Amino acid sequence: MQVTETLAEGLKRELKVVIPVKDMAAEMNLKLADAKDKVRINGFRPGKVPMAHLKKVYGRSIMAQLVNDIIQERPTAILSERGEKAATQPQIAMTEDEALADKILAAEADFEFTISYEVIPSFDIMDLSEISVVREVVDVPAEEVDEQVLRVAEGSRTYETKKGKAADGDRVTIDYLGKVDGEAFEGGADQDAELVIGSNRFIPGFEEQLIGLKAGDEKVITVTFPAAYQAAHLAGKEATFDITVKEVAAPGKVEINDELAKSLNLESADKLREVVRSQIESQYGQVTRQKLKRQILDQLDAAHKFDSPSTLVDAEFENIWRQINTELSDSGKTFEDEDTTEEAAREEYRTLAERRVRLGLVLSQIGEKAGIQVSDDELQRSLFEQVRRFPGQEREIYEYFQKTPGAVASLRAPIFEEKTVDHMLGLIKVTDKTVSKEELMADDEAEGSDKAEKPAKKKAAPKKKAAKKDEAEGAAE
User: What are 105-159's pLDDT values in tens digits?
Assistant: First the structure.
């Protein structure tokens, strides 16, 4: 076998592989000899079929299988011998000349094919001990715990039917029908809907107009949907609702005691407070980790500058671009509404894609050197979490991950990434800093994040959502 490099431009490589006809013929003859004692051909005793006849009957099919085996197996071996790792599956090209293909299958011509691919770039990982980050920690005050416990208690509050008019804090049971320009709209009707006045669950201005109504009353109320309402066809529009009040109920007294805790399957009010505190700390902990991770990624990005494989960058950009356009479409907006142009947005998201791919490669090398593995149990738990998000579609989700190439890698990558970050936290310098919840929750875009992830102009939801996505998702494998 002869391997000749015909292209070495940046990260792009192209190899010409030639397997001489004598080698192909020798491989074919070995397989024919192996088949000689196994095949049954009329007119010949087992094991006595002449090789020439075997070649005439089975030669082309055996040669076709040889060709298929070669293009499936040799590229991996060739790249391994060259000490290279392809960024994506190498592209294989063979002759399209039918006459030449027939000669190859007849063992009368050399078998030639080309391998085209991009290599994973070679780079050195920075000294991780040089990374220094600040871990913001919130000391949850007792008052916040009490506020949350009170919300839990209010969620368990009982209501008693009353005959008087509805007041703020009362629960009303209503039938309603919403209309825009006199026409009912989808999702704008319900029966026996329960609504606590003052809960702010409905459109601004809706609940206040229920005050003073009593059971049996009917009323038409008018409201205006918010300009940023999620349903674009309703955003900013005036609507009317035909209301029928079925019941008015007054709230019972809220008491935080052991009886309330036991109704929630907890042994005491103290245990309830303990559970609530743990939940709040967990919520803040997730934000703390994300901000910590962002600092790590920023410093890794600053220390590692190299060209990334365009195939990976193209794929990541397409993922981002598809997400952005879906969000714009769902919100009924355009790039102009976001104070930018499609061309400028493409350039900015392309830079973001390059950053994500580069960080994915860096994290991948750090994790591999640390011997980080993703277990089957971890993959199974991740798959289960995916399935839980789509109740009623469990079978379809399982089949998707079984049949879709790369689907399992999409589960593995974020797990691998998080385990790599955990490994790094044991090597870098971490300084804890106690902050208020307001400081922790403040947008961190102005705290030194990469320019590719900060809007150069005022951009709303689409930009922010894309920037907050895990940067190495799908690229760390």
Answer: 888 899 999 999 999 999 999 999 999 999 999 999 899 999 999 888 887 888 9
C-alpha 258: how far from chain center:
42
Q: Are residues 194 and 243 in the same domain?
A: yes
CA 318, CA 326: separation in Å to the nearest integer?
A: 12
Encode pLDDT of 357-372 as tens digits: 999 999 999 999 999 9
281 and 424 housed in the same domain: yes
Q: Is 161 left (phi over 0), alpha (psi -120 to 50) or beta?
A: beta
Residue 304 and residue 448 in one domain: yes
**Could you tell me the strand order of the sheet in which 91-94 lies?**
2-9, 12-19, 111-118, 91-94
Within 10 angstroms of residue 275's Cβ, the number of other Cβ atoms is 16
At 116, list the tokens: 């085209």
Do 166 and 23 belong to one domain? no
> What span, in angstroms and rounded, lies between the C-alpha atoms of 177 and 404?
44
Dump pLDDT digits (tens) for 206-252.
Answer: 999 999 999 999 999 999 999 878 887 888 999 999 999 999 999 98
How many folded domains does the chain comprise?
Answer: 3
User: How many Å apart are CA 205 and CA 385, to the nearest integer?
Assistant: 38
Domain housing 231 = 158-251
Q: Specify whether 337 is located in the same domain as 462.
A: yes
Residue at which a domain ends, from 190, 220, 251: 251
Find the angle CA(473)-CA(475)-CA(477) to the nearest 5 degrees: 110
Q: Is residue 266 exposed (0-12), middle (13-18) or buried (19+ Cβ within 10 Å)?
A: middle
Instruction: Record the tokens describing residue 308, joined without a space.
Output: 């990334």
Contact between 296 and 424 under an 8 Å Cβ cutoff? The reply is yes
Residue 108 and residue 86: Cα distance in Å, rounded? 32
Place of tokens 């009317």: 240
Given a contact cutoff of 8 angstroms between Cβ atoms, the answer to whether 32 and 26 are in contact is no
**Residue at 261 is within a domain:** no
CA 287 to CA 437: how far, in whole Å?
A: 10
SS3 (DSSP) at 342: helix
Q: Which two tokens stand for residue 240?
A: 């009317």
> Looking at residue 447, what is its pLDDT?
42
Q: Which CATH number do you get for residue 54?
A: 3.30.70.1050
- Both tokens of 175, joined, read 């039938």
Of 118, 145, 175, the residue that ends a domain is 118
Kindly report the number of other CB atoms within 10 A of residue 363's CB atom. 27
Residue 367 lies in a domain: yes
Angle between the N-to-C axes of helices 51-82 and 98-105, in degrees from 0 to 180, rounded to the nearest 10: 110
Residue 237, phi then psi, degrees to nearest 5:
-95, 150
